[in-house]
Amino acid sequence: MKSELRLLIVETSAAEADSLLQALRGQGVEVAGTVVSTLSAMREALAAADCKAIICCHPVAGCPAATALALAQELRPDLPFIVLAREPSLELAVGLMKLGAHDYLPVDELPRLGPALERELRDAAVRRRQVIIENRLHESYELFRAIVENVGDLVAVLDTEGRRVYNSPSYRPLFNERDIRRGSSSFAEIHPEDRERIRSVFRKTVATGIGECAEFRFLLKDGSIRFMESDGRAIRGVDGKVSKVVVVSRDITDQKRLEAELREMAATDMLTGLPNRRHFIGQLEQETARVHRDGEHSASVLMIDIDHFKRVNDSSGHVAGDQVLRHLSATMRQELRRVDTAGRLGGEEFAIILPGAALADAELFADRLRRKVAETAAMHDSRELPVTISIGVSEIRATDAGAEDVLGRADRALYRAKESGRNRVVVEA
After folding, report:
1. DSSP helix/strand/coil, 173
2. pLDDT tens across 274-311, in order?
3. N or C: at which end does the chain have fewer Cβ atoms within 10 angstroms?
């Protein structure tokens, strides 16, 4: 059963109001009415009654139409306001419509009231939905702004060409306002080596609507570099096509630095700062592979052992032994070329890779290093600790299956050096 439509009728005569309701019922509108004749009564009715529209008869003594309209707009601006004029006036009609009345009908056009009322009710429903939508959009915008303006991540809204539509305030510590202004290119500050790759990722997001996570670098005006991790999300318009891309970027510079430090720690002997055995073997495998690829490339390996190292630990303590290890590491670094690699394989055992060095050259280098170590004692508690080393040398062969082959030959040469009296170099071809 269709519910009655409740109206607020501004009218002095109850009989006239009842005639008005009967006329609407005759036009197929199921209505009930609350009748008021004063502004105070109208105010109470608007506060209490669940009315859906206002019909203001004019003139009504003590409640002019313009005043009633102002009160309605103050208390219930969502309600349709229709003026029913007993004394039609074009000037009054124009004035009331300008003030916000929704319709103005002479009383002799009463048959038009039903259709006019239904039309205004439909329009009011549309206006209410529009207000709800606008409120939701406003809430969404305020929520978006509250989030992006209070997080450390960099949030950008870009058009389909990558031009900036919006940047979160978190961009400001990194860039000048003029460089990130609306309409500027979002690719300008990306490191030149990363720019085309990121541009390609962006184009793919626009074309497919599927965002991707990517890493790149920002090159700042002061020359510094920030590492970024970025995630793009496509926004589609009402036509279903991508119209905007939201890009959320996170500064991962500290994370990258930590990862590099962890990689270095994993590859480094903490006492001497030299590559550890695992990392050294990896470097040796690469050099062996290079010899395999290039028949004219030569490289040699030195295996090094500190002579009588156990005596140092036993007589002077492990702290002194550690100082001897650090002293040898520092002496080797002084003698190495940029392309050479030294590593601590364990205990007092070290090794060196000499890329480009044939066996004879490697032997000369090894003997020079041996003499340098013997000539420069380690220091501990203001006391000199003489150090000598034995060295085994071997060249990487194209027939070596891997790093262990050449290390085995160099290790055998080292063994012979120690058996022959130490503090000497032995070569195994």
Report:
1. coil
2. 999 999 999 999 999 999 998 789 999 999 999 999 99
3. N
Q: Among residues 355, 348, 357, which one has the least CA distance to residue 391?
A: 348
The 10 Å Cβ neighbour count of residue 316 is 16
Cα dist from 365 to 72, 304, 357, 408, whole Å: 101, 13, 9, 20
Among 250, 188, 249, residue whose Cα is nearest residue 219? 188
DSSP summary character for residue 376:
S
| Helix (H), strand (E), coil (C) string for the chain | CCCCEEEEEECCCHHHHHHHHHHHHHCCCCEEEEEECCHHHHHHHHHHCCCCEEEEEECCCCCCHHHHHHHHHHHCCCCCEEEEECCCCHHHHHHHHHHCCCEEEEHHHHHHHHHHHHHHHHHHHHHHHHHHHHHHHHHHHHHHHHHHCCCCCEEEEECCCCEEEEECHHHCCCCCHHHHCCCCECCCCECHHHHHHHHHHHHHHHHHCCCCEEEEEEECCCCCEEEEEEEEEEEECCCCCEEEEEEEEEECHHHHHHHHHHHHHHHECCCCCCECHHHHHHHHHHHHHHHHHCCCCCEEEEEEEECCHHHHHHHHCHHHHHHHHHHHHHHHHHHCCCCCEEEEEECCEEEEEEECCCHHHHHHHHHHHHHHHHHCCEEECCEEECCCEEEEEEECCCCCCCHHHHHHHHHHHHHHHHHCCCCCEEECC
Maximum distance among all Cα pairs of the chain, rounded to whole angstroms: 134
**CA–CA dist 407, 394 (Å, integer):** 8
The two three-digit tokens of residue 24, written as one number: 């609407």
Q: Which domains does the chain have, with CATH numbers?
A: 5-129 (3.40.50.2300), 154-256 (3.30.450.20), 268-427 (3.30.70.270)
pLDDT tens sequence across 42-79? 999 998 778 899 999 988 877 889 999 999 999 999 89
Q: How far is CA 259 from the centre of its chain?
A: 18
Residue 160, φ and ψ in degrees, nearest 5: -70, -5
Separation of alpha carbons 251 and 195, rounded Å: 17
